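PROTOCOL LOG
Step 1. Enter all chains and additional molecules of the complex.
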Amino acid sequence: MESNLKVLFVAAECTPYIKVGGLGDVAGELPLKLKELGVDVNIVIPANKDMEVPTQYKGDFPVNLGWRNETCVVREVINAPVPTYLVDNYHYFGRSGVYGHRDDPERFAFFCMAVYEMLQHFDYKPDVIHLNDWHTAPLAMLIRENEREHPHFHEIALLYTIHNLEYQGVSGRNIFAMFGVKDVVFKTTKVEYYGCFNAMKAGLNYADIITGVSKTFSHQMLSPEHGFGLEGVVQSRKSALRGVINGINTSLWNPETDALLVNTYNSEGLLKKRENKRQLKKDLGLDEKDVPLFASVTRLVPNKGLDLLEGAAEYIVKEGGQFILLGSGEKYYENVFMRLMDRYPGSISVNLEFNNAKAHRIYSGSDFFLMPSRYEPCGISQLIAMRYGTIPIVHKTGGLADTVLDAGKNTGEGTGFTFATYSMDAFQRALKKAFGIYKDESALSGLIKRAMSRESSWEEPAREYLSLYEEARKENQKRKTKGRKTLFEEKGKGESHI
Ligand code: GLC
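Step 2. Run joint prediction.
Step 3. Record the structure below.
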């Protein structure tokens, strides 16, 4: 038992109950590992119409949204591995889709208000609240701005994790008004942003410790190129900023035991992986010749580098390889890739769906895994690919830079291929290296073995979070005794826009 901290983990989505992206995986997996380390952890997420999970009523209370009251019903998931609470309200969460509604800022403002009320309703006093992304960030403002009325809030340390800085929850001042905090909080050094309310800023300005989901990403957030307009705010909190890479669920993603594979294997039995490749190609209607097989499992959104991926698919086919895509998303990209499949039948397979079994077989049966993301705070697929011995080819950014070591320089240490400049030329050079190594069986199997032996479990990241929770508590103590100012306040820049 390494810790007896009480931690409340707050997120918009969480596996296995509901998942849109990597955030859902993190919320489902990190708390589980923390629990193994002795942490008394609870999860709270919004309810959703699409959740099919047995729950038990825990209580209800009114939530004052400034101009009206809405009822919050709290239900607990029955037999959850980590105690998990769903915040429900028919108007806000009785619909499908976690994100993408016009009233998202209002829905998540309600969520934060409801969690805030819930702490009091159940007299729950966590040592640390771990917030994730903009949807949960205003809770940090609520806790800190209401310390006077609720003195025990002083004791709660706040850790805020950023999984994506691009989505900031920018909305009108009317949303800010829902929180019922003093009007003076609506200023640039706190949550105001060009006349709007910026939820992400609440997390950045009020948390004791801020983490990005990889070291490179945390560093990149400080720059105009990757700061999405908030680089100034991130810089002002630089001393509180850390980077912790995500893990993956290594029991679920394990080629030795994966029941969804035709053949299970480890790095000593790579012939079985080859057999999985043969079967996969057959299932997806690809020609049966022995050529390098490239794959991508991705949401079809621009930041995943789909413009480069389209060019890469054509290049691969022209060089004699094959390409598989699995994923769904924006219609524009769905059409782009469908057209490619029509143009190159037998060489390109496009699967516009979310299909877990297919994903496992693609991770296992492919030779190379493509991730040319424009930006990638952490990335999870490259970790899974490596574990299955499928060599990642990635844009050297964010978590991809931290987890994939370039094999291009033949140092005998690489686990994949990386390219530094976001361009088709640079990507093609990396693809060329992949075609090259495919012909050299012993070099390829060395590379596969190194990729498979990368340690990607949650063990280490969970321990890092544990020590950051302690650090957040210390920072919170310091704040109480000395007061903490943002860099702008210290420099007397006051209200200037960043
Ligand atoms: C977001 C990021 C992704 C990261 C995930 C989990 O989806 O875009 O890079 O892996 O969050 O932290």
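Step 4. Note key features.
The two ends are 44 Å apart (CA to CA).
The longest helix spans residues 459-482.
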